[in-house]
Every structure is written in C-alpha cells, then in structure tokens.
C-alpha cells in the first residue's frame, strides 16, 4: 500500500469554463431497514462499497441511538471538506499549519418561519501557532473555496426524480 498524499494545490486553480465541470460524483443508496424509515432504521451504502452505515434516530428525537444520523454525516462531510480546502490554501500560501482541526455542529430544529424543519451549522476552527489575523483571513478564503460553505451561502442545483 502506498502512502496517502495530500492533494495537489493545483486543485485551487481557477476554472474558466461555461458549464459545470464534474470532477467526482458520490452515489449513496439508502434503504429503510427494519422500520422501513431511512432516518429511524436506514442503511446507507455507497456504490463503491467504501461507505456502509446504519442510521438510527438519536435519543434526543425519541429513537434508540446506536447508529449515525444525517446530521452527523453532514457534519463529517462539511468538516472534511473545509479542513481539506483550508490546508490546501495554507500550503499554497506558505502558511505553516500543524495540528489543525475543524469541529462542525449541525443542529436539526423547528423552523419558526414555516413550522417545519431546518438545519443550523456552526464551524469551529482550531489553528494552533497561526497568528490570529492570518488565521482569520485563511478561514475567510476557505469559506469562499469550500463547496460545503458555498452551498450553505448560495444553495445548489438540486433535482429529484422518480424512477
């Protein structure tokens, strides 16, 4: 097995095309499991087999816990993407970053505007040894680059269809 390498900073090069240029597509299928309810007893599996997780309703929502949930999966994806983008930007900018961490909280709650549901996201960045002014600028640039940050600010193209 070869050593895991950092992605190239060339990923940060600007793209100037007219259409979206797909780089990678993740495909995950969710089935309802025992309760026939994806959130309560679902199983999420990626088409390449790298991901296979049992979903369970958290105790705070009246479930048994004992599995992951959509909020944890979203938080993990966001944290991984933000951390990766931040470290690429730091590398390109010659900012020495060691032992950085990102903690993302995703809160599922009631939306007072329509009475239904919403998500709130909080992102805590730890950059030991990096000057606060430099760290703040690095975070701002990461928010511009990270697609998860972008989708939270701008939304994204979404299509739902029946097969």
> What are the low-pLDDT stretches, counting only 5+ consecutive residues below 50?
none
User: What's the Cα radius of gyration?
Assistant: 18 Å
Helix content: 25-40%
Quick check: average pLDDT? 96
- Morphology call: globular
Helix/sheet category: alpha+beta
CATH topology of the largest domain: GMP Synthetase, Chain A, domain 3
Total number of strands: 5
CATH architecture of the largest domain: 2-Layer Sandwich
* H-E string: EHEEHEEHH
Strand content: 15-25%
CATH class of the largest domain: Alpha Beta
Q: What composes the largest sheet?
A: 3 strands, antiparallel
- Through-space gap between termini: 40 Å
What order do the strands of the largest sheet run in, or round the barrel if closed? 1-2-3
Describe this structure in words.
By secondary structure, the chain is an alpha+beta fold. It has two domains: 27-68, N-terminal domain of TfIIb (Single Sheet), CATH 2.20.25; 69-156, GMP Synthetase, Chain A, domain 3 (2-Layer Sandwich). The chain has helices at residues 38-41, 70-92, 132-145, 147-154; strands at residues 28-31, 43-46, 52-54, 101-110, 117-126. The strands form two sheets. Strands 1-2-3 form a three-stranded antiparallel β-sheet, with no helix packed on it. Helix 2 (70-92) packs across helix 3 and helix 3 (132-145) crosses helix 4. The longest helix has 23 residues, at 70-92.
